[in-house]
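Exercise 7.
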Amino acid sequence: MDYYKIAGLTIALNNQPFDYVTERLNDYRISSCNADLAVDIVLCDAIINVNYDVVKEKGKLFYCRTIEGGYAVKEWDGVRVNSLLEADENITRATITLTNEESPTLSNDKKLFNMLGELFKYALVLHGGIVMHGSSISYKGMGLLFSAPSGTGKTTHTSLWREYYPNDTAIINDDTPAVIFKDGKLYLCGTPWSGTTELNNNVTAEHLATVFITRGTSNTLTELKGEEALLHMLIETRMLPYAELMKRYWEVFTQLAESKTYLLSCDMSKKAVDVVKRNIDEQIKV
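Solution. The predicted structure, written as tokens, is:
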């Protein structure tokens, strides 16, 4: 049994066979504990296609409810089930089953890693946390979340913070950081699931601001409030396919939407970093 702690959530993995998964999770490893979530990994020749009630379909993925009221996500190619995630209604126990015959498009180790990420999102929301789309950094110990549609330049922008202010800046997660609400405060947390760059650190920083990035010819920072802030948040929200989980999701999301939020129109230069940095430095002084 291997144990991990990610954004405050403790996870036990039983029979996890892949070096790739071990490597990706390694920074979050802990000694044995009474885990919030225990996951069994099963490899077999064939997976029985159980007729669960389908809640949502997305390509080959079918999001379902189990007979007992739990959650199931199955990968169905029209002929057979290639992978199956099953969890109880409280998401304290789960099983991920993979077939021994690997897909030509995605190896089993990467498939398992992705399914663990999906399960993590479901479990985290029951522990006061959500996953947001964005590149997050710790600056002088405070958390900044930079968000924008893919391809806008989030990673480029946060890399400039690390280039020009390396002593004050550290990456938290470059694609999907966890946001947790605890004791009346928001925190940004590293997770192993960090997109194509795989940049992440096992750190937690109190959330100071969310900055939405748009490309522009000049560098300006505008504070967003009310509906304007909420709209930008919603665009970059990763919805969950289950209504009862989304109800818990909105509890944290509302806190994030009411926190300091900005729109940065910028080019990809040090000047873009500095226009945000000046504002953040003033907040930190206060």
